[in-house]
Model the fold of this input.
Amino acid sequence: MLIIDSKDCENIDKALKKYKKKFEKSKVLLQLRGRQAFVKPSVRRRTDVLKAIYKQQIASGKIEA
Done:
């Protein structure tokens, strides 16, 4: 559960903005989307390896992002 500390004089819009940022940083929505369908461990590993290879290629300068 997300808890937002708000002062009495703080605007509701600012409090809502803080809540949205905190919610986005907690990555709850990404976890929910990931759990909608089962992904085999071998497929998950393969995608992780492909992401790592892509990041390495960007870092070495072979691919421009």
